[in-house]
What does this fold into?
Amino acid sequence: MKRHRCRILLFWLLVVLTFRGGKLHGEVSGSVRGQGDRWFSVAVPAAVEGEGAEAFLEVLRRDLLRSGWIRAVPVPVGELASSPASFYVEIHVTPGSSLKVEAYLKATGQSGALVAKAYDVRPEDLSKASHRFSDAVVEALSGRPGIASTRIAFVAREGEHPAIFSIGVDGRHERKLVAGAFPCFFPRHALNRDWIVYTAYPKGFPELWLLDVVSGRNHRISARPGLNTLGALSPDGRTIAATLSFEGNPEVYLLGLTGKIERRLTRHRGCDLSPVWSPDGKSLIFVSDRSGAPQIYLLSLEGEASPKQLSFPFNCGSYCSSPSWSPRGDWIAFTARRKGRFAILALRLADGEVVALTDGSASSEDPSWAPDGRHLVWVETGRRGKLLVIGDLFRPGEGRTLPLPPRSGLRTPSWQGGARR
Amino acid sequence: MIPRSGMKGTPMRRFSRLLPLLVMLLACNTGCRRRASDLSADAASHKPGTETSQQDDRAGFDLGPSASDARFTERDIPLAERPADLSAFRDPFADGGDGNDSGAGKDVEWSTVLRDLHFEFDSFELPGSAQATLSEIGSSLRMHPDVSIVVEGHCDERGASSYNLALGERRALAVREFLVAMGIPSERIHTVSYGEEYPLAPGHDETSWARNRRAHFRIKDE
It folds into this structure.
């Protein structure tokens, strides 16, 4: 009898452990290793009747899985509310010329809903409703923004010149953003709005431009002699940090949106470039070769302190560049040369812990963080040419390739910030 | 879910069989603290405009309708790919620049004078062999005070494209410094970096890389 009781206890313990991933809004602390094994279990209808419903669910299941936070468990519709999963998704689709979708996230055994959304969409646009709902579910459970409805800008050759494109994180709906009979590159998304700062050569020289993706309008920010490049919009959207060389050496400056110089931030014989804002807008990281080879430096905008070196040959590599700052502020990621190849490293600012996100089997460059502060996109150069890869801070060494048609000159991806359109 | 027969046991036994259920309920409770309201309450938060971002400060900069102006509702998602608008993304500088005119052929003599200079890996130091070429270019520029030149800095494909853009600029600037030291007014020598964009040799070996790490000259069109 005692053994029988033990078995019952063990059974329920297993059920609880299997179907309950992490705590709701659980904070991630300690090492990142193993964090990828934490997730929320969400029961999703295994099959549903009605036009469009299955398509909505198919995209939703994939989106939830890719979010990294959720394991979607297929459950027959009638058993959703009683499944052992902690949460479940309920959908109702009303067919017509436009589909009306009502979607809910509910907690098992609780009344009410954590998320309730109603969409009115054309059948061909159903996937966008799935992406939006997936993002709402991820945000409700993990407390972080979802990434399913975000886009990634990147550079690829368009004929003779590099041009700027963007693509959904599901690898669909590619769009040309900026192209011309001259190079356009280094797109960098703003954190809080759908703006992209980029570099273009309309008159044969590098100029700094800003694209408002929503309106499609382009604005010239700076066209001084020499370099006007690698600009980044501040989180409040008022200032652009950029690399200019009109004073004879590549240095980092702060510019207003009209292009007026507000402040020169670096003053060194070495190259100072690639400024990136902290999410609170109080400091910047940038690349400098002042120590002999490029490394990452941190500069506080408050006070007059000199830049602090963050990456060193002994902990990161002899050549570190292309930094990106997590929207949550805790990690930075960058490219580092290791054993003759380029690797993607993440460095935690609080304690300097360094995690290699790539396994070294290929050369990887140009990381950019997703709004969730967990995923990153970078460019991998391997036997199959250049690919866009989406990696996960909590699953170092793993990556998912974004399905893109083969193209030359693929590089410098930039993940769309928090602004959703 | 608990076997009915289990309810017949002693209070202690009953408790021990209920324990797992309690554990699960407790786990659910801590996990579900953030409970949303019902659809009606949630739907209310999706009135047009409620999902807009904060008002931005344009600081006198005309950006047109930005994200903060546009109304947005979850009920009416702007789902089309807006093909009609794509034209706005293409060639925004159509009425602007003239691309990269080589300027070649403007003066036949120049094509022999303006020879490429080559650099070491990750270096912008002028090689010893560059002196003769630069002296010739300097004297030619002195003889033709109406001519301005553009020095293009190029890199090989290795390294970060961002860092290479800066490196190319420094190669061009190093050339300009030398010519300015020879007495050529700096406003007659323009610099431009193309980083690793336009390799001369397409290969991925040292021979190609050495050819691609270069400063290239062209006459500036006025």
In short: Chain A touches chain B through 107 residues (CB under 8 Å). The helical segments of chain A are 2-19, 53-66, 126-142. The CA atoms of residues 138 and 146 of chain A lie 5 Å apart. The first helix of chain A runs from residue 2 to 19.
